[in-house]
Amino acid sequence: MSTLNRMGVVIAVVALLAMVWYGKEGYRAAITYEARTGEIATRMDAAGVAELRLKAFASFVTLGWVRNDAQVELTRLEKERSSAHASADRDAIGFGAAAATLLALFFLLSIRGFTVVVSLGALVALINGLVTPILLMIVHKQVEYLGDVVLSFESKGILGSISKLYAGDNITVALVLLVFSVLVPLLKTLSLLFVSVYESSPFATGVVRFFRHLGKWSMLDVFVVALLLVYLTSNQQDVSRAEAEIGLYFFLAYVLLSMVASLSADTMLRSKTGEA
Fold first, then answer.
1. How far apart are CA 234 and CA 141, in angstroms?
2. Which of 44, 48, 181, 228 has the fewest beta carbons closer than 10 A?
3. Domain edges within the chain
4. CA distance 159 to 244
């Protein structure tokens, strides 16, 4: 193994560990953001807003003698939520930088080694994308005399959404999401790992040829996520605000890495068999 190749292997290991680390920290930040947003939403329902206004009035009338503890707690939750959001943004940037580093290893590793590390990166991104929340929704409206009142709050992840759709008797939609957002991506990533490790196997060429024939569906994963977002936000009269969470960026990183791994595996086997 050349010095350049050894350097590439070291960088690949560091980049993969960084993806695992930032994925774990991003998941924790997303869960914290979800929890704090949920607590704030609970405190901003009709009863909570009325209590907040009454305590604010009492504090004003008594010149601060009556402490507005509801506002103090709300401020604390807002700070923790903002901190979690900032952490998630940093983790998303770190995760993306580590994924980009894997792609840059094309110039340092052999085609086989590059296929292995990019496939492993795709697997890490897929797992994080499936378990981390991808969409946060808050339903709120203006209520006379109270102001902005939160009616409901919900945070969505791919696996959680599939479970909820199935429980709500939306079995067809749940199965479509399960197949094309979980099973097919997982099978594709594991197959690419198999191809890169056992390139001499008689099954390797068949696996890559299969995915080559499916090349026109290479953006299907993105399409499924888009359908999920549209489905979950279709009732525009109720959903007032929806925002993407870090899980969506993890899943999109998987899509990019898996596409590159597919092309790399295809090139590897073409060069081995002497195809044009």
1. 17
2. 48
3. 3-273
4. 16
